[in-house]
Amino acid sequence: MRTMVWFRSDLRVGDNDAVWHARQRSDDGVVGVFTICPDQWREHDWGPMKADFIRRCLLELRASLVELNVPLKIVVTPRFEGVPGALLALATELGIDELHMGREYEVNERKRDQWVADAFGDADIAVHRHTNKVLYEPGQIRTKEDKWYSVFTPFKKRLYARWDEETPEVLPAPPPCDAMVCEADPIPEPGEWKTWGFDFAPEHATRPDLWPGGEAHATERFEHFLEAGIRGYKDRRDSPAINGTSSLSPYLTMGCIGPRQIVHACLDQNRHDFWKGNAGITHYVSEIIWREFYQHLLVGFPRVCKNRNFNTEYDGFEWNNNDEHFAAWCEGRTGVSIVDAAMRQLNTTGWMHNRCRMIVAMFLTKNLLLDWRLGERYFMQKLVDGDLGSNNGGWQWSSSTGTDAAPYFRVYNPISQSERHDPEGDYIRTYVPELAELDAKQIHDPHARTGGLFASDLYPEPIVDLKGTRERAIEAFKRYRELGEVRVI
Ligand SMILES: Cc1cc2nc3c(=O)[nH]c(=O)nc-3n(C[C@H](O)[C@H](O)[C@H](O)COP(=O)(O)OP(=O)(O)OC[C@H]3O[C@@H](n4cnc5c(N)ncnc54)[C@H](O)[C@@H]3O)c2cc1C
Hints:
This protein is mostly helical. It is built from 21 helices and five strands. Helices cover about 45% and strands about 5% of the residues. Strands 3-2-1-4-5 form a five-stranded parallel sheet, sandwiched between helices. The chain folds into three domains: about 130 residues, HUPs (Rossmann fold, 3-Layer(aba) Sandwich); about 120 residues, Serine Threonine Protein Phosphatase 5, Tetratricopeptide repeat; about 170 residues, DNA Cyclobutane Dipyrimidine Photolyase, subunit A, domain 3. The site of flavin-adenine dinucleotide has 28 residues, from helix 10, helix 12, helix 15 and helix 17.
């Protein structure tokens, strides 16, 4: 038996069900394959930051697989439609008997996987799908009425109970194969990625210094956090000026580390208790479950993959159109210092602190009253950890159109948020150097707090009045809800 592992967002060999089972069932070699679909990826708004990270992860994966005598083949086909034919041709050429893959949950990805399963089925090659990306398959955590959860806390409670009933196992890396079936392919060079529309030139700041690729690095990052960061996580996680979070999101998004590994390691340090014990650990595990929740929603409520509001009640809501405001937001020149710092962090590092993601998302959708889809798209183009489930979930939460969303009348004031979470202004100083000389009070609202002395050619005046736009947003939502059609989800 010769097997093939199709890697996707599970770029690791440890705790990878597809790798493990492909190896277990094979006595005549295992082949790995990764498919690059540049046009489709760009259509999904993946940018150079994410693509370059994937390239680095592939280099590491290829090396780890060579140690196991598993060659990694690379298939390039512009769109998902080309995948079944290209994979089947490779499998036929290499005499493959079985295909193993971890499941993905976005609508287009599920369609692609079904096409592949059909094509392989027609060719009498068995296809085995595995759980690699989540703790439980979407659909396995359901309400008493056998419905999908749309609220986080009961979902989490049910998941924790299920864990006690049926704990998912962590699998080790498999033993090496006796011999390589064929040569591994080279990982395409940056020049080739450029022809596909992903330019990794320094001005696009894809930051290999911040985000080294691969499983070994992800493990090291997690172990360091477990040792030095997790116990203080609850107290430090909301301060963007410090490294208070694990910064594992790109590694979870591309599967260099999996959620089972993380939850088991956390529980081992907390007497296997989800609820009590160290608050840093219980909080951290809860954040991993937010990610899980958003993956489950992709299957339970597939409209979120199709640019639709989760809460269809808002389908007729009219957002503003204002290209200048949107451009100022993207470029970090809104004149609201915490918003500008956060957007510049995103633009220069490919990552943004969670607290700041919520602040800029509320600012865009409430103060500017711009459509959450604009923000979601821009984030996806820039983020190294861009993930449809979490990104969409975060945006719809912030714009009050999502599951378990912030109620429309709770609108963050970015200045109070800044004073509370960046009290010394250190985060702002890092990303908005033109404000570096201001003191810890002035920096949160530069123009108002320097008595107008601060030159607006050095730093812009706020593009909107925060108080007035907050009231306008609440009024718009209220009016819409009173007059608009209210549908039951
Ligand atoms: C508007 C908006 C957009 C977002 N877009 C993304 C995205 O594209 N990709 C992404 O991975 N996360 C996204 N998030 C969630 C969150 O901001 C990031 O996961 C987190 O900031 C990553 O940093 P970390 O790894 O240090 O997190 P930690 O605080 O160390 O948390 C550990 C892990 O838990 C998960 N997690 C933490 N918070 C959340 C959350 N609120 N929702 C879902 N998962 C969470 C992530 O996988 C994270 O790596 C978004 C949040 C908002 C508000």
